[in-house]
Design brief:
The protein is mostly helical. It folds into 2 domains: 344 residues, Amino acid/polyamine transporter I (Up-down Bundle); 80 residues, no CATH class. The protein is 75% helix and 0% strand. Helix 3 packs antiparallel against helix 11. The chain is globular and about 70 Å long. The C terminus is likely disordered.
């Protein structure tokens, strides 16, 4: 039986990296570096755990479990349906897909516009062209390795390396003192900010497309597909770690000379031309367009595959068209609006995804303890939703003040203790109602 090795395995890893590495992956590492300053590498440890470690563990967990529906089904069938649906909406037309177009427009087009240019109209035209091209590639999801892995990913990596080397050869500024939320525990703040890449929840879904590409290259045995998917995940993780480190360094250098930037996009817009001159904006534009385009194609493919399976009477092709059109409309709301909405949504969903992944790696000890998954996820979900509502100022002051006093809440990790308590409650309930007689599916 065939298994992918060497160059073919590397190409699948490149494809997975391309699907991961989009708008948020470009924006948040440099922003972390700019804010963390001299604490950049401490913050980077936290960022690496939530934005690299958990996404790759997510790929492994889903591959070993036989799919997100089966993994989430260990909680309950209704949870599997609702959670999976919310995940796909988040990485699909509501947040992640529109963000690819809005971010690439602001980075690749806006810097070259004059003050009198009709920005709104140009953004509409750009989004139409962007999603039309992405749709054309997404209509053949089994060929993404040939399009993304072989061509666009190597170009993207080469351009980012050029930016990094330029900042090493011609340093502009230096690491400043930590600012904002990074003046405290930089590692924890880096961990929480890693949510914004959206990669952990995306990882729970990318496996379906990677498996298609692996099978398209002649791998037939299910165990071989799973094994290859996991190996591709480790390759993608190593690449993400290296690229994030480069971007964090660029951001930290920029923080000393361009303080007060609103986001990572603004940091790169100022830093890269300072190093490369007029050519810097063109290089940066190419980086953003390619990275955002790759992710857009992958996300449209994943969402279309999922909803085609959920509603088989509507073909994959029509789902892809639907998601491209809806995402195009949402993208015209602008980057800042999308980022504003994404923060509370991700703060509510991300902890649940993390706990689900961690539980999957404890499966050999949890067999038969049927209440562990439901209790841990329930406690985590309640805590994370309340925390997200508090962060968005949507709770009464008294309730918000009480939640702020919860253990680790000041660090943005108020869900950790409830998750542990929930798991403990689940174990006790399972043992009290018959121990291990009921085996988890």
């Amino acid at each position: 039986m065939k298994e992918l090795k060497g160059r073919e395995l590397l190409l699948v890893g490149f494809t997975l990296f391309s699907m991961f590495f989009g708008a948020g992956n470009l924006i948040f590492p440099p922003f972390t570096g700019a804010q963390a300053g001299t604490s950049t590498w401490i913050a980077f440890v936290g960022l690496a755990v939530s934005a690299v470690g958990f996404p790759i563990l997510g790929v492994v967990a889903v591959a070993r479990s036989g799919g997100l529906d089966k993994l989430a089904g260990r909680v309950s069938p209704w949870f599997a349906a609702v959670f999976t649906f919310l995940i796909y909406l988040s990485i699909g037309p509501c947040l992640a897909i529109p963000r690819t177009a809005s971010t690439s427009f602001e980075m690749a087009v806006t810097p070259f516009l004059g003050e009198s240019a009709p920005a709104g109209l140009l953004q509409l035209i750009y989004s139409v062209l962007f999603f039309a091209a992405a749709l054309a590639l997404a209509l053949q999801p089994e060929r993404l390795t040939d399009r993304l892995g072989k061509i666009l990913c190597p170009i993207l990596i080469a351009l980012i390396v050029v930016l990094f080397v330029g900042c090493l050869v011609k340093p502009v500024g230096g690491y400043a003192a930590p600012s904002g939320s990074y003046t405290g525990n930089a590692a924890i703040q880096g961990f929480v900010d890693g949510y914004q890449t959206m990669d952990t929840i995306a990882a729970l879904n990318f496996g379906i497309i990677i498996a298609l590409n692996i099978r398209a290259r002649g791998v037939e045995r299910e165990k071989s597909v799973v094994r290859t998917t996991i190996r591709a995940g480790w390759i993608a993780g190593a690449m993400l770690l290296a690229i994030y480190a480069m971007l964090a360094h660029i951001g930290a250098m920029a923080g000393g000379v361009f303080p007060g930037a609103a986001n990572g996009a603004e940091i790169l817009t100022k830093m890269v031309p300072a190093v490369f001159g007029p050519w810097g904006s063109a290089i940066l534009a190419a980086v953003f367009v390619i990275s955002c385009f790759n992710t857009c194609v992958g996300l449209i493919s994943c969402c279309s595959e999922y909803f085609c399976g959920l509603f088989p009477k509507i073909s994959y092709r029509w789902w892809a068209v639907f998601f491209a059109v809806v995402s195009m409309a949402v993208s015209n709301a602008g980057l800042n609006m999308i980022l504003k909405v994404s923060v509370p949504v991700l703060n509510a969903i991300y902890p649940v995804a993390i706990v689900l992944i961690l539980l999957s790696f404890c499966q050999r000890w949890l067999e038969g303890l049927r209440y562990v998954y439901p209790a841990a996820i329930l406690f985590t979900g309640v805590a994370s939703v309340l925390s997200a509502l508090r962060g968005a100022a949507l709770l009464p002051a008294g309730v918000a003040g009480l939640l702020a006093k919860a253990p680790l809440a000041s660090m943005g990790l108020g869900w950790v203790v409830p998750a542990v308590v929930g798991a403990a409650v689940g174990i006790l309930l399972s043992l009290a109602t018959g121990g291990r007689r009921t085996r988890l599916e």
